[in-house]
Amino acid sequence: MTSAPRSEPAPKVVLSEDEWRAKLTPEEFAVLRLAGTERPYTGEYTDTETEGVYECRACGAELFRSDEKFHSHCGWPSFFDPADSDAVILREDNSLGMRRVEVLCASCHSHLGHVFEGEGYPTPTDKRYCINSICLRLVPKE
Predict the structure, then answer these.
(1) Separation between Cα atoms, residue 32 and residue 142, nearest integer Å
(2) What does the pLDDT read at residue 1?
(3) Rg value, the chain, Cα
(4) Which residues in the chain land under pLDDT 70?
(5) What's the whole-model pTM score?
(6) Domains detected in the chain
(7) Catalytic residue among 56, 59, 130, 135, which?
(8) Average model confidence (pLDDT) across the chain
């Protein structure tokens, strides 16, 4: 199982629920702020191979880089590591009768997806950060 979630620092970006609703589309709000999940194989970045940086769609913080992305064939973009170990927060998630580890943006505490370990992917970390496309914005490398 993934290492124990670390304590959560206070978010750097703090908005009220109404401010988040005004900033995000209803679909973005449902996933980023209410911990929803987009349908598999529907996100714009699932199979993208464009080089660049993936930012949090809610606050613009750098989360992942294209050289950390891999094809897991799970229906969502997958990364083997965040761009910076402090870019995300890991939180225990026992919802839906499952034991998982939720991935949050460290800057605004928006829900991004989940991280899984020990699935046998040939990556340097043996981890799969399974992230909703709708939570990301790709800034292509110039």
Answers:
(1) 28
(2) 47
(3) 14
(4) 1-7
(5) 0.89
(6) 17-140 (2.170.150.20)
(7) 130
(8) 91
